[in-house]
Write a structure and sequence with these properties.
The complex is a heterotrimer of chains A (359), B (351) and C (334).
Chain A (H helix, E strand, L loop, with lengths): L3 H10 L8 H11 L5 E4 L5 E5 L9 E7 L4 E8 L2 E7 L11 E5 L10 E7 L21 E3 L4 H7 L5 E4 L4 E3 L3 E4 L2 H16 L8 E7 L7 H10 L3 E9 L18 E4 L5 H14 L4 E4 L7 H7 L6 E8 L7 E4 H17 L4 H4 L5
Parallel strand pairs in A: 3-12, 3-13, 13-16, 14-15
Antiparallel strand pairs in A: 1-2, 2-12, 4-5, 4-9, 5-8, 6-7, 6-9, 7-8, 10-11, 11-17, 14-16
Chain B lengths: L5 H12 L8 H11 L5 E4 L5 E5 L7 E8 L4 E9 L2 E7 L10 E5 L4 E5 L9 H5 L9 E2 L11 E4 L4 E2 L3 E4 L2 H15 L5 E8 L7 H10 L3 E9 L23 E2 L10 H14 L4 E2 L9 H4 L8 E8 L7 E4 H16 L12
Parallel strand pairs in B: 3-12, 3-13, 13-16, 14-15
Antiparallel strand pairs in B: 1-2, 2-12, 4-5, 4-9, 5-8, 6-7, 6-9, 7-8, 10-11, 11-17, 14-16
Helix pairs in contact in B: 1-4, 4-8, 6-8
Chain C lengths: L1 H8 L9 H11 L5 E4 L5 E5 L8 E7 L4 E7 L5 E6 L11 E4 L4 E6 L14 E4 L15 E4 L4 E2 L3 E4 L2 H16 L6 E7 L7 H10 L3 E8 L19 E5 L7 H13 L5 E4 L6 H6 L7 E7 L8 E4 H15 L9
The chains are: A alpha+beta (359), B alpha+beta (351), C alpha+beta (334).
């Protein structure tokens, strides 16, 4: 198997903003193709990989969903050679000043669709309305500077062009990686680990690996793929809040100590229990997580689509979520991938009945 | 005059990749020493770490001209350890704390990578997002078990980008000047004795320049620095009247800033040289701020001084932006001005 | 066209109570479509059939509901308290006239405002229908009304209440009128309950199961004094939506519309809207997902009783839709 870390670094460096996931989808498809029996795209661009099961037909199917879209910015206006921007997904404007970005300019014709480097500029307080003072500067006042003359900017860059983060991945101590867009490309990597673990291992159920679109802007991919594939069971993999500076309450789990297994109304308790028991059996470390209302992940969309699907959530601990320096520990990715693979391998044609609420 | 292009960009990239937080300028100092030694009769490093180099001219009556550029930059120092790779830090030099969050940094002499993160947006309230994030809550995170020494300096980890009209990099203030001064040492006009001072600790109070000027005791001095261009559009569309300098308008000659009233004879000399040779230039808007000239002009019995700066946007942030042409024109203007220097310029009274 | 627009905008049909406007539109489209029906939520669906069995189903949605008010209480003296239907701007309330679906007119007054510089909250407003007591009031709890404001023809600029989204309805009707032939199976859907959560579009899209969805709705502009910063302006062409706060338009649909506008040499603008969303989002989420986009008519003063559009933008929108729908879909959208 090709190594995981270079794949993650490549994957998180690709733009693939919500609604424009194609660059990410292409790389994932390339990596998954040898691992599955068929690959296809949904009508809204989610990637579906099918690994057929060995059980008798009609076979139940499990869908593993990891969203591949990324947060970022979009050009909303051009003023004197500077760009005004709008957010794609949840971006805290306090993390933006001084960031390097790539502006994906569409106005230069084929030759110049490549990205232009830019800087997110926070104009001096004299240039801003007094209410911003020296406090936080909201997104509407920030500008992107691509260092080109105004006339050129006007031709190259159009309203609606995408702006993605451009900082490079960094290897940190303790097997950790810092980069933008680890949310949620690391979960795609965990799905990849799962598919690799399943090679040469018979499993009764069909397994759909889904790299879903537009999670950050309303779970579009998860709703539509669940409808299309009509699985018997869904496990979503997403990043979860790791303990770290600024975040230490009950909503966080330790970094590097295994995936989070979430429980709450969004999650089928029996599937959760089965995952937990599987992890215990394999001595894969994990932390229990609690979402008393809504997990805010693909799990929700999967659960409520069509006639409803039992759903569960595996979280990969991540520090500084939605900043350009998200931090993950590689071991956690591998553990999540392995747990899913073992869970799938453990499913029998009868397993579905064991997930029933009451007999 | 030799060409100014790719090899200077390469030198600048090397200088900008080195880390030299005020008080810890060793990395840039070694690059400077390596670059200038073959071209100088006399080079030394003084008690504070300034590099002082002398290159004598060949004309008969020569002015002793000090040209300074500061090697140091703003950055951080690690001041306390939380354990498990997390460190508290303090800024060194004037850094807008709103620029810290979500950045990668390089720590210590090994350039160990780390990040400054923040609480995820999902866990913050709209009210909280209106408040700035305080330094007390931020940490440099080296990863689980990561190690650094307290007292280590840190700089933003920003790569160097040159997109033809513009250069984007960390520490352009004042590596642009350092690179120009290196070029000057390599090719100084013969009508002067060039006293090159690559100074330290400018960002925390012009400390290096003060002792360097005393030691060199020049006839006159020129500080080559990089100065903010606040030439962004006004939100409400009003004319921007306080831009300090503007990118693309050439080198900025100082008439007065918060620390120095430039010697008018030197201001005129450089403006005249620019006009005569068709070099674009601008006057930096008189106002606050300061350069090494602030310390130099008050050394000993007083030294006639002026500053010339390459304009940059986004000073003291992770990534600055300057125009190549402004930098190149600063180089040309320095040469043109210095060539015109004769002892006569200082013969009369300052006026 | 202006006459029809006047009729459309002077009809009162807040969300959930679209009967009146549905009849006005049905009358117009009856003779233009192959088939006209109404579904369970009251959506009016006019179908222009495709020529072959392989024809792609395209759903066009313009919502026919409008924002309005609903009575929550009639006091002893006959004053009606109310709640909003859709996104009501309290600042636009004072002095506004309303008309109930049953024809009763009324005016809006406010409680005593201690701070005259502040807009009243909806709870501080009441409707006066000229009644002297609860007993002789012609309205009761649950009655709905729209804002009363006659259509105003300024020549190139047109002003009315409920331009959002009767202008979209007009564009759909005129497109249906001007379309001679289409290789596609076209569903012109006049949707209900958009203002309260794109509900009509959700069910009609499920029923139609389209291959492509396009909403025609209004968008805000950035061309009035000290307004929000936005590139879209009146008279610069219909706006092709790239993003609004609820939806990312399908890039293939955006590209299809831009190519169509450029090929037909029609003016257009690219739209990034910071607040609001349209029926397109509901269509996009239907079943296994539908490539969806939105053609917007730039409109000033949205959700006030005086919404303004530009006649050229409207006509160019009709031309663009006619050109796009008259041809087969590009490969990437099939």
């Amino acid at each position: 198997m090709p190594e995981l870390l270079p794949f993650i670094k490549n994957l998180c460096s690709l733009p693939g903003l919500s609604g424009w996931e194609e660059p990410a989808a292409r790389l994932i498809e390339e990596r998954w193709r040898p691992l599955v029996d068929q690959v296809s795209l949904s009508r809204v661009g989610s990637l579906h990989g099918l690994k057929r099961g060995t059980g008798p037909e009609p076979r139940p199917a499990i869908m593993l969903s990891a969203h591949m879209d990324a947060i970022g910015l979009m050009v909303s206006g051009v003023v004197d050679g500077f760009l005004r921007v709008s957010s794609v997904g949840g971006v805290d404007p306090r993390t933006l000043p001084g960031q390097l970005v790539n502006v994906h300019a569409s106005g230069g014709g084929e030759a110049e669709t490549s990205s232009l480097p830019g800087i997110i500029a926070q104009p001096g307080s004299r240039l801003l309305p007094p209410e911003t003072n020296d406090g936080t500067v909201p997104l509407e006042y920030l500008l992107v500077d691509v260092g080109l003359p105004a006339e050129k900017v006007k031709v190259l860059i159009k309203v609606g062009d995408l702006v993605s983060f451009a900082s490079e991945p960094l290897d940190l101590a303790g097997g950790a990686l810092a980069a933008h867009t680890l949310d949620n490309r690391v979960s795609v990597a965990a799905l990849t680990v799962c598919l690799e673990e399943l090679q040469g291992r018979p499993h009764a159920w069909d397994a759909w690996a889904v790299a879903s679109v537009q999670e950050e802007t309303g779970l579009t991919g998860a709703y539509t793929s669940t409808y299309q594939l009509a699985p018997s069971l869904v496990i979503a993999v997403d990043v979860t809040f790791a303990k770290g500076p600024g975040s230490s309450d009950w909503q966080t789990v330790p970094l590097g100590e295994g995936p989070g297994l979430c429980m709450g109304p969004n999650i089928h308790p029996k599937v959760h229990k089965a995952l937990k028991e599987q992890a215990e059996k394999l001595e894969i470390p994990f932390t229990l997580e609690y979402a008393p209302r809504h997990t805010g992940t693909d799990t929700f969309a999967a659960q409520v689509t069509a006639e409803g699907v039992p759903a569960a959530l595996i979280g990969i601990p991540l520090r500084y979520m939605h900043t350009p320096v998200e931090v993950v520990v590689l071991k956690d990715i591998q553990r999540a991938g392995r747990l899913m693979a073992e869970f799938i391998a453990s499913l029998t044609p009868e397993s579905l009945q064991t997930f029933a609420w009451e007999k | 005059m030799a060409a100014f292009g790719p090899s200077q960009i390469k030198l600048l990239e090397k200088l900008c990749t080195a880390a030299a937080v005020s008080g810890d300028e060793g990395e840039v100092r070694s690059l400077v020493l390596e670059a200038i030694k073959p071209h100088c009769s006399h080079v030394r490093v003084d008690a504070l770490g300034n590099v002082l180099a002398e290159r004598k001219g060949s004309a008969r009556r020569r002015l002793r001209v000090m040209v300074s550029a500061h090697m140091d930059e703003v950055g951080f120092m690690l001041v306390a350890e939380d354990g498990d790779g997390l460190y508290r830090f303090e800024p060194v030099g004037g850094i807008d704390l709103r620029q810290l969050v979500g950045k990668a940094v390089l720590v210590g002499s090994k350039h160990t990578p780390g990040v400054i993160g923040a609480r995820p947006i999902h866990l913050t309230t709209a009210e909280e997002r209106k408040r700035t994030i305080t330094l007390e809550t931020l940490r440099i995170d080296l990863g689980p078990g990561g190690k650094a020494d307290l007292g280590d300096r840190a700089v933003f980890a920003t790569r160097f980008i040159y997109n033809k009209p513009s250069i984007m990099a960390r520490a352009l203030d004042d590596r642009l000047g350092v690179a120009l001064l290196i070029e000057l040492v390599k090719e100084a006009p013969e009508n002067i004795d060039l006293l090159a001072a690559f100074t330290v600790q400018e960002e925390i109070g012009l400390r290096g320049a003060r002792v360097a000027a005393h030691a060199l005791d020049p006839d006159l001095a020129i500080a080559v620095d990089s100065t903010p261009a606040n030439d962004l559009p006004d939100w409400e569309g009003k004319e921007n009247e306080a831009y300090n300098t503007r990118l693309g308008f050439g080198p900025a000659i100082y008439i007065a800033d918060g620390s120095t009233v430039s010697d008018p004879r030197l201001v005129r000399l450089f403006a005249t040289a620019a006009e005569a040779e068709g070099i674009p230039y601008q006057y930096r808007q008189p106002g606050g701020g300061g350069t090494d000239a602030g310390a130099i002009h008050k050394a000993r019995a007083g030294i006639p001084s002026v500053s010339i700066s390459v304009p940059h946007r986004y000073g003291h942030t992770p990534v600055l932006l300057a125009r190549f042409e402004d930098w190149k024109n600063t180089h040309t203007l320095l040469q043109a001005g210095l060539r015109r220097l004769t002892p006569g310029i200082l013969a009369g009274e300052r006026k | 066209m202006k006459k029809l627009l006047q009729k459309l905008t002077e009809t009162f049909s807040p969300s959930g109570y679209e009967d009146a406007i549905r009849e006005v539109i049905r009358l117009e489209v009856k003779s233009l479509a192959d088939e006209v029906r109404t579904d369970a939520l009251g959506n009016l669906i006019a179908r222009k059939k495709g020529k072959s069995a392989a024809a792609r189903r395209i759903m066009l949605a313009a919502h026919m509901d409008e924002i309005g008010l609903m009575v929550t209480h009639v006091d002893e003296k006959g004053f009606a308290r109310f709640t909003g239907i859709g996104g009501i701007r309290p600042a636009a309330m004072t002095g506004t006239r309303v008309r109930f679906v049953n024809g009763t007119p009324g005016v809006i007054g406010t409680d005593r405002m201690t701070d005259a510089s502040r807009a009243p909250s909806l709870e501080q407003c009441s409707i006066d229908i000229g009644a002297e007591s609860r007993k002789d009031s012609a309205v009761k709890v649950g009655d709905v009304c729209g804002f009363e404001r006659p259509f105003l023809d300024m020549g190139k600029r047109l002003v009315a209440k409920s331009m959002d989204d009767r202008i979209g309805c007009l564009v759909l009707i005129e497109t249906l009128r001007s379309l001679k032939d289409s290789p596609n199976d076209l569903y012109f859907v006049f949707t209900t309950q958009e203002e309260v959560g794109v509900r009509g579009a959700t069910t009609s899209a499920f029923g139609i199961d389209p291959h492509l969805g396009l909403a025609v709705d209004v968008t805000a502009t950035g061309d009035t004094p000290n307004c929000l910063k936005m590139e879209v302006g009146l008279g610069k062409g219909p706006a092709i939506k790239v993003k609004d706060s609820g939806m990312l338009a399908d890039p293939r649909v955006v590209a299809w519309m831009i190519a169509g506008a450029e090929k037909s040499r029609l003016p257009y603008q690219r739209e990034v809207l910071e607040a609001g969303s349209t029926d397109a989002r509901a269509i996009q989420l239907t079943r296994s997902g539908v490539p969806a986009g939105c053609l917007s008519i730039p409109c000033r003063y949205v959700h006030t009783p005086s919404e303004m559009v530009d006649l050229d933008d409207v006509q160019n929108a009709v031309k663009l839709l006619t050109a796009l729908l008259g041809k087969p879909l590009p490969k990437e959208l099939e």
